[in-house]
Amino acid sequence: MKNKVFALFFVAVALISCKKEEKAPETEKTPLVVSDTLKWSERLAKTLIHQYPEAYQIDDRTSPKWDYVHGLIMTSFEKLYQKTHKKEYFDYVKGYADATINEDGSIVGYQMEKYNIDMIEAGNSLFFLYNQTKDERYLKAMQLLREQLKNHPRTTEGGFWHKKVYPNQMWLDGLFMGSPFYAQYTATFEEGAALDDVAKQFELIQKHLLDPKTNLLYHGWDESKEMEWANKETGTSPNFWSRSLGWYAMALVDALDYFPENHPKRAELVHYLNQLAEALVKFQDKTGLWYQVTDQGDREGNYLEGSGSSMFAYALAKGANKGYLPSIYKDAANKAFDGLINNLVKVSPEGYVTITQVCAVAGLGGKEKRDGSYEYYINEKKKDNDPKATGPFIMAALELNK
Fold it and tell me: How far apart are CA 395 and CA 23, in angstroms?
């Protein structure tokens, strides 16, 4: 009897074991969509194409809009196409232009009378598209943007206002929004006639926004000194914001491409870039990154920020590659890029790339009464893979051949 009970017991255990084995699912690996053998520029570009199949959808848009963030990404894809010659990157750039430029060269949603310097930036990739296709729409759109610059309101010394709704103000952001396009247009179609005016924009920024103690530049300047954020003696905003400094650094390295070596203003712009580069590396964190408020280090609330760090990596790398900066700054750029990968970049099991810790937006004044304080900058919302980080990241990766 005991033997029968033991026999039944062992049979029962065996059956239970079999059932457990039958139910245990096999471990399935998530299929790798974006290969980790690709360079970082393509890995992020393919991530963006997956997330936004149509380029106008970037920044979570549901309909085509002419905007600087799209222009920034289109420039990065243009550079990627020139490096790889892969048609999907060309098609992405052309797709954005075709979604936002009408047959007559007019631009969807664009209103010149608003005199918003941000609207100029998206025209940067049109030189490339026009050269590739000879489509007159692109030329007409560029001419339209050039017309804005001819009539754009200015300070008493000739500096472009940031926007009509921000009278008498120059922001660092605006130098990137307007100067590279202005320089390339005049070099391409006007034989460089207006390059002195391009240089003047940088001269005025250096004159009014440079802090002599740090050689960093404040985010904005109000000639009238009437804005709540403006210093009543100097007109400057109160803090250094890394992304605004990044816009300025990129403006210098990109505009310089169109200043011939014998141009009398070229050495001046190179000096500005070197002065800024020297100042920036003093505030580069041991991780290789920069903080949201550039000079405040690990003060409570401050954080290592993705867009400014990506912009600095690009500007320093390109500056060194072009010979505008000593080669040592390429080391700083490599350190910055490695810092992004090691600290802020996440890769999904499918291979999709995400840059974290990116300030979504920041500005001065306006309806939001943005005061430019330390507390203001550290409390603005963050957004993963914000285009103001992804575009410069791709360009930095290309300059560094990462």
Answer: 49
Side chain identity at residue 304, one-letter code: L
Low-confidence ranges of the chain (pLDDT < 50): 1-27
Residue-by-residue DSSP string for 205-271? HHHHHB-TTT--B-SEEETT--STTS-TTT-B-SS-BHHHHHHHHHHHHHHGGGS-TT-TTHHHHHH
Tens digit of each residue's pLDDT (9 = 90 or more) over 295-318:
999 999 999 999 999 999 999 999
**Catalytic residue set:** 173
Domain limits, the chain: 62-152
Please answer whether residues 170 and 220 qualify as being in contact, where contact means their C-beta atoms are separated by less than 8 angstroms: yes
Say what the pTM is. 0.93
Q: If we measure between CA atoms, which residue out of 319, 311, 297 comes closest to residue 393?
A: 311
Q: Closest by alpha carbon to 126, among 100, 104, 160, 150?
A: 100
Whole-Å CA distances, 156 to 24, 161, 168, 223: 76, 10, 8, 8
Q: How far lies 313's CA from each of 83, 280, 330, 362, in Å?
A: 18, 11, 8, 21
Given CA atoms 90, 91, 92, 93 in this order, what sign does their dihedral have? Answer: positive
**Token pair 């505030």 in the structure block, residue:** 283
**Residue 158 falls in which region: left (phi positive, over 0), alpha (psi -120 to 50) or beta:** left
